[in-house]
Amino acid sequence: MATTADARSATARIHQFYINGAWVDSSGGDRLDIINPATEQVVGQVALGSIAETDTAVAAARAAFPGWAATRPDDRADVIDRLRALILENQETLARAITTEMGAAISYAQAAQVPLAAEHLRVANEVLRSYPFLTRRGQTAVVREPIGVCGLITPWNWPLFQITAKAGSALAAGCTVVLKPSELSPLSSALFAELIDRAGFPAGVFNLVNGTGPVVGTRLAEHPDVDMVSITGSTRAGVQVALAAAPTVKRVAQELGGKSPNLILPDADLSRAIPPGVASAMRNVGQSCSAPTRMIVPRTRLAEVEALAIAAVADIRVGDPTDPATTHGPSSNRAQYHRVQTMIQTGIDEGAKLLIGGPGRPEGLARGFFSKPTIFSEVSTDMTVAQEEIFGPVLVILPYDDVEEGIAIANDTVYGLGAQVQGTDRELTRRTAARIRAGQVHLNYPAWDPYAPFGGYKQSGNGREYGIEGLEEYLETKSILGYFD
């Protein structure tokens, strides 16, 4: 058996599903073209699963659950560690698949999309080996047990990263899994399933069914033998999953939309605060739900901020994502490209000050879903571009007159996923962070922490991923009274 993933096999595998430890052909004829967003060319067709195929995968996961749940934590950790090693061994193939399916610049896929996905498995492994599944409280044993069969629904913007964030914790907890990846980015998930097989997971522990949200996603949510659904996607999709899951009273974890603020305090060193803020808003072409796309700045320093922000865009090179010199590729699909273009025009129509960018493709790019990195200033909170998630390379700058107003602007959103605060007074940044209603707040651009729990307030969802909290999301709590003498 081969020990490395093959990009050609990923294209072949998207015609099949991985169920009960084997690749099986789709029983139906429904297919969806996979479009390379940089060239607008068809690179393959993914088979779209049916309710019957979803039911087969759930049955396999249900049958495998007792055995997997009974394995020793160290044994589960060993298999997860083998999977992580295989991902790192196949990093280049995975990165190129991600570039092909959703347009990430190859340098970014190599530096972030794949290695950060592997980090989720490293953390799941480490947490699992030390987690106290049984603790004592007087004469009572408090036991944490795997919740059961989990339906995992993942998005197209961070395809492998979101799969490992969910599957790593679920599998570590002792749960079995049915994954529905985005039908728009199926290549990396097919490669992931191949690596799952090679890592030695027992049959039925991990299953993959491609398909649409209304068919496969809804069936997972409503299925009586699925104990939990975890979805990363739009708030609209999260609501639909919750509604479908409600009759069976299953647990639903949701990591949904965001319109994250980046509050620049009056004492901030703008030369250190603004360029990284622009880069953070534009990372992954703005296709990150926690990207700080609202920069909230002191009105008295607005002109300085604008000059620094314009200069920061000069470091962005939009173009062919397979070129190592490219920093930003296209939007991941046609629908998203059109949304970005519509929202840029909306900002102009509503009277926002266009600093740089604007509608249309960057100069020299005649095809592909490319947008110009765009920055608006003098934006007010009632503007559409200040309230709606754009999910593209668009940053809006909102001025404030005092810190109280700045905090109010930061919280003036239906979302609450991420936030950032920049300032030189450490205590002020901490006090400010405490008043922002968001699940994760970054102070002065810290390094990414894969142990830090990640999830949202308000319409950004519920539940947490990463680290200990990510594992606990997939556990039930049982009290056994009289367990101890």
What do you see in this structure?
This protein has 485 residues and is α/β, with parallel strands linked by helices. Helix content is 41%, strand content 21%. It has helices at residues 7-13, 51-69, 73-89, 91-102, 106-130, 159-173, 187-199, 213-222, 235-245, 270-282, 302-313, 334-349, 384-387, 403-411, 426-435, 467-472, and strands at residues 16-19, 22-25, 31-36, 41-47, 134-137, 140-146, 149-153, 176-180, 206-208, 228-232, 251-255, 261-264, 294-298, 353-356, 374-377, 394-400, 415-416, 418-422, 440-443, 457-458, 461-462, 475-480. The strands form six sheets. It has a seven-stranded mixed sheet with strand order 14-15-16-13-12-18-19, sandwiched between helices. A six-stranded mixed sheet has the order 9-8-7-10-11-21, with helices on both faces. Helix 9 links the parallel strand 10 and strand 11 (251-255).
How many helix segments? 16
Low-confidence stretches: none
Structural class: alpha/beta
How is the main sheet built?
7 strands, mixed
Helices and strands in order:
Layout: H1 7-13, E1 16-19, E2 22-25, E3 31-36, E4 41-47, H2 51-69, H3 73-89, H4 91-102, H5 106-130, E5 134-137, E6 140-146, E7 149-153, H6 159-173, E8 176-180, H7 187-199, E9 206-208, H8 213-222, E10 228-232, H9 235-245, E11 251-255, E12 261-264, H10 270-282, E13 294-298, H11 302-313, H12 334-349, E14 353-356, E15 374-377, H13 384-387, E16 394-400, H14 403-411, E17 415-416, E18 418-422, H15 426-435, E19 440-443, E20 457-458, E21 461-462, H16 467-472, E22 475-480
Parallel strand pairs: 7-8, 7-10, 8-9, 10-11, 12-13, 12-18, 13-16, 15-16, 18-19
Antiparallel strand pairs: 1-2, 3-4, 5-6, 6-22, 11-21, 14-15, 17-20
